[in-house]
Every structure is written in C-alpha cells, then in structure tokens.
Write a structure and sequence with these properties.
Number of strands: 3
Protein name: Zinc ribbon domain-containing protein
Pfam family, one: DUF7560
Organism: Halorubrum tebenquichense DSM 14210
Order of helices and strands: EEHE
Distance between the termini: 5 Å
Shape: globular
Strand order of the largest sheet: 2-1-3
Number of domains: 1
InterPro entries: DUF7560
Radius of gyration: 10 Å
C-alpha cells in the first residue's frame, strides 16, 4: 500500500494525505498555517 505524507516546511506539521488533499494543498498551501506547498513537501512510502 502506498501512503503519502505532507510535511510543511514552515510549521513542521506532518499529515497523511490522499490524492485530492494533495492537490488542494498544492493549490492553497498548508492546511495548518497556509504556507505555500511544493512537490518536495510530499513523501511517498510503500508499506
């Protein structure tokens, strides 16, 4: 199973995201502090 985590470079919050959430974060920024997000802020892990 593939899991994607977003880690904000400003507030250091880490959350597990799905594809829809990932796209929203890229468009609107971190859901916690609204800092801009980039592709590099997402990590994919395989379980």
């Amino acid at each position: 199973m593939t899991t994607v985590h977003f880690t904000c470079t400003d507030c250091a919050q880490t959350i597990e995201v799905n594809d829809a959430m990932r796209e929203t974060i890229l468009d609107t920024g971190c859901p916690v502090c609204t800092a801009a997000a980039a592709e590099d802020d997402f990590a994919v892990t395989c379980e």
